[in-house]
Amino acid sequence: MAVVLALVLWLPASASPMGRLRTPPQRLQHIYASPCEKSVSRRTSLGIIGIVAPIVTSLATSGNAKAATPQIISDAASKLPGYGMPDLFFPSYFEGKWDCISELIDIQFPSGEEMVPNINEVKTLRKYIGTPSVLLRFNQSFIPFRGHVIADRGINTRAAREAARFDDQTKEWYLEKSEIRNVEWDPANPNVLAYMMRKGEKVDVLVTKRAFENPSPEVFITSEVVRQTQTELAELGVTPVTKQVKDQVKYRRVAPDEIRAIMISNVYLAPGDGVKLEDVIKAGNKPITTYRTRIIMTKVP
């Protein structure tokens, strides 16, 4: 889902298969062993945006500042109030590539349904919980960088946005045409991530706060607050759409090659996209939508 800490966006998607993958691991097959009772006429997909954004995009224009290395820029993030560490530093056993399967298991409306701008779409999505329509499969990579293991947010963003879906009729995974291109991310400045959609939208992702802890050798907990801005470059005068999300993930290592996680994503109301300022003030610090997702990660040899 990042399985990196990611901004969760549930969006409608077309159902044209682009390829076939193997069936779900044995531990998931019992859940979807027979065609589900609900007919899914419109597929839904979980586009997980690998998270991070610039805490510092540039330094002052003095000669000394211009000579500053990316290390200084990255380290400066931890000194800015409210931002926390410069990146999420994962336990060493995360390093490598993981085959991930995610399943949306719950949606709640903490501020009331009347506060959710796209309530009809979200309620429709909620009807599919417990069916194969909310299963996604994708790879996630974790890399060594300056003595730490970090998520490769550039690769992970593309992989999650291009996630395979599960067809409950054929019992196979299938891919759809990719809608993402030109992902830009630099591990030396991990809080900046941007990419283009093929229809012309530009998406900028910014982490505004983060924390993590390792309460035991087999448990790792992360939290990030992220702001995403989507801009329609093809249409002048269109107000950018801004979303703010807090992602909390609890990972538990259950075997040398398997990690299980629960991700809770709280979506907060933000001005724009038809949202009134008074509604934003009314919602305050309370989320309007909370998604709970189960993730199973299997190490790729």
Question: What are its keywords?
Answer:
13-stranded antiparallel β-sheet, mainly beta, 13% helix, 15 strands, 6 helices, disordered N terminus, 301 residues
Describe the structure.
The chain has 6 helices and 15 strands. It is mainly beta. Strands 2, 4, 5, 6, 7, 8, 9, 10, 11, 12, 13, 14 and 15 form a 13-stranded antiparallel sheet that branches. The radius of gyration is 19 Å and the shape is globular. The N terminus is likely disordered.
Overall geometry: globular
Rg over alpha carbons: 19 Å
Mean of pLDDT: 76
**What fraction of residues sit in β-strands?**
35-45%
Cα separation of the termini: 20 Å
Low-pLDDT runs of 5+ residues are 1-27, 29-70, 77-82
How many β-strand runs?
A: 15
- Counted by DSSP, the helix tally is 6
The SSE string, one letter per element, is EEHEHHEHEEHEEEEEEEEHE
Helical amount: 10-25%
User: Which class do the helix and strand fractions yield?
Assistant: mainly beta
The largest sheet, given as strand count, sense and whether it forms a barrel, is: 13 strands, antiparallel
Sum this structure up briefly.
This protein has 301 residues and is mostly beta strands. It has helices spanning 26-29, 63-66, 70-76, 119-127, 153-161, 277-283, and strands at 6-13, 20-21, 43-50, 96-108, 135-145, 148-151, 164-167, 172-174, 180-185, 192-197, 201-216, 219-232, 241-255, 258-268, 289-299.
Give the topology, please.
Elements: E1 6-13, E2 20-21, H1 26-29, E3 43-50, H2 63-66, H3 70-76, E4 96-108, H4 119-127, E5 135-145, E6 148-151, H5 153-161, E7 164-167, E8 172-174, E9 180-185, E10 192-197, E11 201-216, E12 219-232, E13 241-255, E14 258-268, H6 277-283, E15 289-299
Antiparallel strand pairs: 1-3, 2-8, 4-5, 4-15, 5-6, 5-7, 7-8, 9-10, 10-11, 11-12, 12-13, 13-14, 14-15
